[in-house]
Fold:
Amino acid sequence: QVQLVESGGGLVQPGGSLNLSCAASGFDFSDFRMTWLRQAPGQVLEWVSDISSSGTLIFYEDSVKGRFTISRDNAKNMLYLQMNSLKPEDTAVYYCARTRDTDSIATMARGQGTQVTVSS
Structure:
C-alpha cells in the first residue's frame, strides 16, 4: 500500500525559505518518478515539479524555477522540496505524489499534504 507522508510546512514571511520532506513507503521508491503538487485555496491542484527515478531528470513549473529545488534520496525513500524566496502566491497545501507514466495529476497517489503559508 502506497504511503506518502509530507512534512516541513508552516508559516513563513515573504522572501523566506522552507524545506519540505516526503517519506515514502509501500512501493519501490527508486523505481518511480516523483512529483510535488500544490493546491491553493479555491484553486485546482497543480503540478510544481518532478524528478525522475534516478534523479537525473528534473522539471519545474515556470513560476518556481530558480526558487525551488527538488531532490530525492533513494537510499532513504525520501523526496524533498527546498523552497527559497517564497512569495504569497506560493501559499498552498503541498503534496508529494508517486508518478506512473500513465498518471494524470488527478490519478497520482499522493499524501495528506503539508500547509505552506507565506504571509507577513
About this structure: The longest strand covers residues 18-25. The mean pLDDT is 97. The CA atoms of residues 62 and 84 lie 15 Å apart. The two ends are 40 Å apart (CA to CA).
